[in-house]
Target: ATP-binding cassette domain-containing protein
Amino acid sequence: MLEVKNLTFKVKENGIDRSIVEDISFTVENGEMLVITGPNGGGKSSLAKVLMGIEKADSGQIILDGEDISAYDIDHRANAGIGYAFQQPPRFKGMTVERFLSLAAGRPLTENEVCKMLSGVGICAREYLKREVDGTLSGGEMKRLEIATVLAKAHKLCIFDEPEAGIDLWSFSMLVNQFEKIHKKKEEMLILISHQERIIRMADRIMVIEDGRIKTIGPKDEVLPALLDKGPVCTCMEC
Model:
C-alpha cells in the first residue's frame, strides 16, 4: 500500500516560493490502478517526480508498505520497489537496447526475453537489440522503450507519466493491453498520469489535480461522468 500524507513541493520563482504540489494526501491499495488527470500545468508530473525521488518534497510523508521512504533518494526508492517511466525519456549514447533492458531488469536477459519485452510495447524486436539508446531513436521509440524498462522487472508500485504521449495508435493499443494484464494480476500498484479517455476508463479510482491540489478523488464510476461533462479528457492521440 502507498500512503501519501500532506505532500508539498515548492520552487522558487523570482525569489518567491511557489507551491507546485500543495498538501496532497491519498492512498493506493495493493493491486489498485489510480489514474491522475487534470489540466496541463496542474502539478501531476511534479507529483510523480516527488514520489520517485527525482524532486525532493518540502514537507509530508511517503510510506510504501509501511516503510517511510520520505528521506530516500531515487536509487533507494527504486530498490524499495518503485518503477518510473518518464514523460520524456533520457537517452544513453553507447548503450544498446539489449543492455539497457538488462540493467532495468537487474539481470542479464536472453535475446528472446528482450524481444518479448520489446514486442509487448510495439517495437519490432530483433531489429532493435543492438541499436543504441541515443538520438537515432525517435521520440515514440524512446517512449515505448522507456515503458519496457519498467515492465522488465516486478515492482511494488509502477508510475507511468503520460504513457500515450508520442506513440502511434497501434502501439498505444498494445500498451493498454499490457496495463490491463498487469492490473488483472493485482500484483502491483499502478499510477498512470493521463489525459486519454481509454486509459482513464481502466482506473479503479481517478484523482483530478488542479493548481497543485487534489480537486477530486474517487471511484471511476463517480468521477468519470463529471470529467466527460467538463471535457478535460481526450479521445485522440494528440495530447
